[in-house]
Amino acid sequence: MKKSIICVFFLACMSFAVSEPAAQEAQDSNALARQSYEQGISHYENGDYKAAATAFREAYTLRPSWKILFNIGQSEAAAKRYGLAMEAFQKYLIKGGDDIPGDRKDYVTEEIRRLKELVGEVEVDAPEKSAVYIDGVLRGTAPLLSPVLVVGGTRHEAVVKLEKDELLRREFSVWGGKKIKLVAQKKPEKAPGPAPVAVAEKPEPEEEQEEAGPEEETQQLDPLYFWLSLGATAAFGGATLAVEFVVKDKYEQYEEKGDSSIKDEGRTLQPVGIAFLALTGAAAVATGVLAYFTFAETGDAGEAGETGDDSDTARIHVAPWAGTGSGGLMLEMDW
User: Is 154 found in the same domain as 86?
Assistant: First the structure.
């Protein structure tokens, strides 16, 4: 009998020794929860609603009381993070149930109805145990039981992680009352590398022999540019001649009639003729340059000079040209 009493006393002591640290840990957790809750109240009163929501969430993690969910919902709604606010209010109604006072339940129900028009739904399809973050906030672990709620009409960033691997990082937007779907997949495993290949013995070095390389091709310009430039030269030259003939005719009329107004008209046209003459010269020079690069010789210049065979060589000459009462530049090409 005495032995039995001793055993019972020993078991009671052991139970007390185990329960005392647990009770102390629970007391410390409650104290930290109270501290975080009071910080949330202070942040909310100071208008820092995001910090208030963070503090209330810490308090809820330490002491999961459904009453704190109401504070989280209010803080998130004030911070205009309507998706998080709506989720907190919905969870508040589920956890609180019949213990929620009637007026408070009506208020939360009306808030949820109002927020539905402001939030969109994001369905996330991800591998099991993947962590889903929206705008840096952990919104759950896959598979998610319901779509994630976010503010409609604004840009968001979704990140899905599985352990150390980032499966998805994407910016998105969704209109209020609408739903989109994001899919995150595991990264494919690396395929095994090829089997090692046996290395053959190095052959004896042989004398290097020069091989004839491919002949260098001369890159030529498109002939279209040459013909366009040649046409411009002809057009400017024709305009120069036309103006020259008109000026000459004006002076002949002046000599016959002696009307000074006709002479003034001729003088007025002279600068126009000079301008067209300058344009003709510039176009002719450009045509000559284009002709050189367009119809360049295809053979080796040194060999052509030695053999005297220049059948593949185009020669271009630009020379001044003058006629009775007119002048310009002349372009000659020898084929």
Answer: no
